[in-house]
Amino acid sequence: MLKIAYAPLYTHPLPDGHRFPMIKYELLIEQLLYEGTITQENIFEPEEVKEQYILDTHDADYWDRLNGLALERHEVRRIGFPLSDLLVKRERVINQGTIMCAEYALQYGVSLNIAGGTHHAFSDCGEGFCLLNDIAMAANYLLKYKGFKQILVIDLDVHQGNGTASIFEGNDQVFTFSMHGAHNFPLRKETSDLDIGLPDGTTDEEYLKTLRFHLPMLLDKVQPDFVFYQSGVDVLETDKLGRLSMSMQGCKERDQIVFEHCKERDLPVCVSMGGGYSERVARVVEAHANTFRLAERIFIE
Fold first, then answer.
1. Is 154 helix (H, G, I), strand (E, B) or coil?
2. Where is the Histone deacetylase domain (predicted)?
3. Domains of the chain by residue range
4. Which of 57, 196, 241, 280 has the most CB atoms at less than 10 Å from its CB?
5. pTM assigned to the model
6. Buried b (16+ CB within 10 A) or exposed e, 18-29
7. Which of 119-123, 141-145, 172-176, 273-277 has the lowest mean pLDDT?
8. CATH 3.50.50.60: does it fit domain 3-300?
């Protein structure tokens, strides 16, 4: 069964001026239900993540100040959202959703969080609309409490997973792979275990060729027992922040490549949604919906 983390809280913690593209979470779940890709039985609503799991990944001082709404003004600017109790609660729910998705992926092969992908959050600060790093927190959960030995993070958001790379720098149990726009945010890149920076205007052909070349070799080299996949659709040519030139079909083929290689190796996959900022929100929703449709077809049917 496909299990999907979703909570209405994802869409309602922000003032109206900050809600786009948050509305995509709400519209995506409606679309998947409407077309019959999922039913209510597939959906679960996470609670807030326990503090012990936060502190396995994040600095105690940062967490105390974030939770107490006591960040410095420059730290709040770096995050990009106005700080509030509801925003912090939203982030805790997102992180618990990814932890639960990791558990469900062990049971069903794949599970997806409608939200997540907060890969710009460092251990001691937030950045780029990310307060707490859900993939890092869930990876540490598997390592510390579930006995996993080797984890691979596949981050195909158009922006480098800089926070994730920083958190796991020097950690041999987590291999971070980020394929992103070379000249896009963040201006100062961290060092992932494998970084592939793509030039502006990269098309389907070059992108998919690069992914097909590196991913199988990486899976064979790392030999992970679990995969986290950041599936941002800000690689689309229509994306306001992306700067690449991928089509809807190319984005769909990207997801298919990841899922099929993991399925062939019997690797459980936990998917976090990541970015998507095309002008037409319907295009963002359709691109994200393709990820869920492919997960259902490749792993569940």
1. strand
2. 19-290
3. 3-300
4. 57
5. 0.96
6. eeebbebbbbbb
7. 273-277
8. no
